[in-house]
Amino acid sequence: MSTTGHYITDLPFIAAKAEEKQGENDEFLRSVHARADQGLDVIAHRLNDTVSAAIDCTACGNCCKTLVINVADDELAPLAEHLELSIAVAKDKYIEESMAGKLFINTMPCHFLADNKCTIYEARFSECRDFPHLHKPGFKDRLAGTLMHYGRCPIIYNVVEQMKVELGFVA
User: Fold this and answer.
1) Contact at 8 Å (CB) between 64 and 108?
2) Torsion angle defined by CA atoms of residues 11, 13, 15 and 17, in that order, rounded to the nearest 10 degrees
3) Position 4 confidence tier, pLDDT thresholds 50, 70, 90
4) pTM to 2 decimal places
5) Which own/partner contact pairs does 45-53 have at CB distance under 8 Å and 24+ positions apart?
6) Is the peptide bond before 154 cis (omega within 30 degrees of 0)?
7) Residues 6 or more apart in contact with residue 132 via CB below 8 angstroms
8) Is the pLDDT of residue 89 over 80?
9) 3-class SS at 7?
10) Across residues 109-126, what is the average pLDDT?
C-alpha cells in the first residue's frame, strides 16, 4: 500500500475502503448533520491544510482522470488565450455544452493532463483550482458531495478519516 508520511495514497486501497466503508460514511454524514457546533469548518480547513501539504496531487491526478470538469462561461476566453486559439476553436475542440447550456470538458481523462500534471495550470478552471473544495466554508452542508469523492481522492480520504477521529465518531 502506498503512503505519503502517515497518509494513505494508494488509489486501489482507497477505492476498496470506500466500498467497505459506505455504511460507515453514511453514518458519519448523519452524525455531522446532527451536530450543532459550527467548528467543523475550522477542523476541516486545518486538516485540509495539513493533508494537502503532505500529498502531491501530481503523483495521483485521479481527479483529472475521472471527474467531469465543469467550465464557467467566463473561463473560455482565458483558455483560448492560453492555447493561442480563438474562443470558437477552443470551445469546439475541448468543451461540450449540455442542452441546458452548461459547459464541461469533453473528455475523461482531461485533455490537459500529461504525466499527472496540468498543461494549462495557469489557465485551469475554477473547479480544478478548488478541488477537493475542503478549504471552502460550509463543510457540513457539502459533506455529502465530499463523500462522493472519498474513494477517488487521497486528500479527501485522509481528511475524512482524521475528522472521524477528531470528532470521536465511532461506527
Assistant:
1) no
2) -150
3) low
4) 0.92
5) 45/134, 45/135, 47/134, 47/158, 47/159, 47/162, 47/163, 47/166, 48/132, 48/134, 48/135, 48/155, 48/159, 49/135, 51/7, 51/155, 51/158, 51/159, 51/162, 52/134, 52/155
6) no
7) 48, 63, 146, 149, 153, 155, 156
8) yes
9) strand
10) 95
Contact in structure between 153 and 17 (CB atoms under 8 Å): no
Rounded CA-CA distance 163/51 in Å is 12
Nine-digit cell string for 67: 471527474
Is 26:125 a contact under the CB 8 Å cutoff? no
Q: What are the domain boundaries of the chain? A: 3-61+132-166, 68-130
The contacts of residue 83 (CB under 8 Å, 6+ apart) are 90, 120, 123
Angle ∠(54,60,62) on CA atoms, nearest 5: 125
Distance between alpha carbon 7 and the CA centroid of its chain, in Å?
17
From residue 164, give the alpha-carbon distance in Å to each of 53, 157, 170.
20, 11, 8
